[in-house]
Amino acid sequence: MFSEKVKQVLALLETSSADIARISGCDKSHISRMVSGARKPKINGAAVWRLVNGIYLASDEKGMTDKLCEIIQCEMGCSADEIKAHLIKWLYDGEETDAAKPRSHADKTPYRAFGEKLVAAMELTGLSNIRMGRLLNIDPSYISRFRSGLRSPKANPKMMSDICATLTERAASQGKLSALARLTGAEAGAPTNRESVSDTVYEWLYSSERTDETPLVQGLIDQIGSFSADIVKPPLSFEQAADEDIISEDIPTYYGTSGLRRAVIRFLGNVFRRGEKELYLYSDQNMEWMTGDPYFRAEWASLMILCVTNGTRISIIHNINRDLSEMADAIKSWLPLYPSGMIRSYYCRLRAGERFSTTLFLCPGYACISGSNAVGTENESGMYRFDTGADQLIAHRIAYDELLEHSGELAKVHLAGDTGSLGEPDVRSTAVISDTLSLATMPESTLRSVILRSGEGKSGLTHIRAIWEKRRELLKQMAENGTVYEYAPLSADEELFGGTARTDIPGITTAYTPKEYADHIRSIIDFLETYPNYRLCIIPETAFEDIKLIVSERDVAVQRLKAPYITIKFDHPDLCRAFNSYIDRIREQYNLDKLTTIHKLERYL
């Protein structure tokens, strides 16, 4: 009877034992044996709770919780745990059950991730976020995000070491070195001196972080969020960066690193002086020629900035063939110039060779620096042509265009108000992480109320309402064609009643009133009940300040919520994989079933 009822439920949900195993996080064979009747688990045992939890989450995933309640004769409006308890009774056909409860979402394997381990170590040593922040000389909010799993310190090796040293010294001062060692799972009899325990703590804290690309994702987002609204200023003036004797040269060939540097000064100096409008850059040779001399790098950077501010549009094909960190560095190096709208960056899908390195710096209306040299010979005997003939420039342009044919755009910059950059309606799954409730789920009455209080006139209302309509329609289309996960923290009472609960209305700093916030919450609940594939995942705090992150399997969009208001999109498969991996970790930690989510939201009504 038990197995027949399990089969009946799986048929209703159009799901398999493998799906239930995946959702509940257990071995497929355990579920299969229960479905086939080979095994009937003990009533209220761990095995049946895993099965019941998987069935309930599958019904929630498919938007069929109501049908599940109907078949197990559970009244509507029950909580998630009540539905699971009814399911247990139904499966066992009325056999007596005790008051045991299923494992909740929060009941996880202890200390599985860095954040959970850090919480345990801080609790052992009596460290609060504020005290830990002071000892490390960082904002306590970062400690909070480390603990919640929203951030990782891996991008900062010094901070990783400082955290371990602080925990170890704190434990030593309290006579708890042995207790801290036991917390890490150290074997009995292992050394408990400061150095040994610190090494053990480091290994324990960061063992799960080694293959994690979260720090790369976080570092890139932080870099996008931190650059100034003002165009970066050149470190040197034109006269300091471009020696008049160099830019006046008429030399057809340059040799070695010193020659290449001289050719570049001549090239960029004249591009700026002539007011040329296009530059096309490619190089897969070692970047030592640019980075090896700090003063030359300042000259190069100054001339590049001067060209951009003078109206020169730059296309650059990056050499990114080895790893994600190289790709992130390529993006970061040009980020300060992105708000100008004058940079287009690409990655070439063809792999660079290891025998020859190539450099091609082209200004179609003026000149081209080109070189192809055996790898390792560039510094001393590398040869670089400085061509200015019309036929030569055409030939170089054809070569560059051939590279572009095999390239994808690495970072696409969209200026403020470009709503087309905020998602695609036909993707299978989209995740949005923001620091507040989304504009798309805001009711029109709340939108109008906030805008009128902000002092915007009718024209402002009309403009923002048009953006709201597009985003709302896009959200509905994405929820109909795939699954949408929105991640956001809920405002604390101090924010709501203190007038600091921010909205997602572009260009408006006016905060929610408590009533407006409650109306928005009602609208979200309506979305949850209307669209089975729409999910709100409540996170404990803001993941990224002034940033909205939109991730799908196809592309990633990082939207700045402060000046300059730009969105940068990436579609490189490796970057998309890294961002999706980060989203998966957050979803695993904070995704709740809809009923539980709605109950959490209802406290604001």
Helices and strands in order:
Layout: H1 2-13, H2 17-24, H3 28-36, H4 46-61, H5 65-71, H6 80-91, H7 114-125, H8 129-136, H9 140-148, H10 157-173, H11 177-183, H12 194-206, H13 214-226, H14 238-241, H15 244-247, E1 253-255, H16 256-274, E2 278-283, H17 288-291, H18 294-309, E3 313-318, H19 324-334, E4 343-348, E5 356-363, E6 367-374, H20 378-381, E7 383-387, H21 390-405, E8 407-415, E9 429-433, H22 444-454, H23 458-481, E10 483-488, H24 493-498, H25 514-530, E11 534-538, E12 547-552, E13 556-560, E14 566-570, H26 573-590, H27 594-601
Parallel strand pairs: 2-3, 3-4, 9-10, 10-11
Antiparallel strand pairs: 1-7, 2-5, 4-8, 5-6, 6-7, 8-14, 9-12, 12-13, 13-14
Helix pairs in contact: 2-3, 2-4, 4-6, 7-9, 8-9, 10-12, 11-12, 13-19, 16-18, 22-23
Task: Please give the order of strands in the largest beta sheet.
Answer: 1-7-6-5-2-3-4-8-14-13-12-9-10-11
Strand content: 5-15%
Report the span from N to C terminus.
Answer: 44 Å
Low-confidence parts, pLDDT < 50 over ≥5 residues? 103-112
CATH architecture descriptor name of the largest domain: 2-Layer Sandwich
- Major sheet summary line: 14 strands, mixed
Rg over CA atoms, rounded to whole Å, is 29 Å
- The overall number of domains is 4
Helix count? 27
In total, the number of strands is 14
User: Taking all residues together, what is the mean pLDDT?
Assistant: 86
Structural class: alpha+beta
CATH classification class of the largest domain? Alpha Beta
Predict the CATH topology of the largest domain. Endonuclease, Chain A
Gross geometry: globular
Percent range of helical residues: 40-55%
